[in-house]
Structures are given as structure tokens and as C-alpha cells.
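Friendly challenge for the regulars: who can give me the C-alpha cells for this chain first? No prize, just bragging rights.
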Amino acid sequence: MKARIPNQGGGNSQAAMMKKLQDMQAEMARIQEEVEAAEYSASAGGGAVEVKVNGKHEVLEVNIKPEVVDPDDVEILSDMIIAATNEAIRKASDTMEQRMGSATSGLGLPAGFGF
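First reply, four minutes later:
Bragging rights claimed.
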């Protein structure tokens, strides 16, 4: 004869957890679409260079003020483009991380198990 422990592995709690996971998955997909479609901008050199990326980390636009273009010193321009691009990508990544963390917070997962 098998012993039964009440409310252990019962269908209702499993069904509720599955529903919660499905809802969270749908919410995460929605958030991912929103963040990927959004645009993130950053500048360097006091606004001399501005870079715009989307949430997929694709560069959409690079704007360079003509007065900072010095044919004898393209290295500084290159550094500004890199800095602005990295900052714009960082903004996109931080937004994704923050929004996904909010979506998974209701699961009560231990630290480090978020998405």
C-alpha cells in the first residue's frame, strides 16, 4: 500500500505552476520584441559622435559632426565611434536585463536564476 502525502505533486499546483510559466514565457517574448524594436543612443566627444542601435545590438545610425573630422587624426574619431557604440549597446543590454528581471521576479527564484 502506498502512502499519499496531501498536496504533494497534486495536479492543481502543477497546473498552476505551468500556467504561471506559460504566462511568464509570453510576457518575456513580448518584452524581448519591445526591447529589440526600441532604439538606444549614446554619444562621445561631447556629442561630436552619436551612435544609435536597436535592441538586437545592430548599429542603425552613426552621426559625426563635420568639425571633428581631422584627416591627420582619425584615431580619435575612431575611439569616439567605438565608445559611443559600446555605450549604446550597453544601454540596450541593460534595458533587456532589467525588463526580463522584472518579468521573472514573480517566480520566487533564488538569486542567480533570473533570465
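The chain has two helices and three strands. Strands lie at 39-44, 49-54, 59-64. Your move, everyone else.
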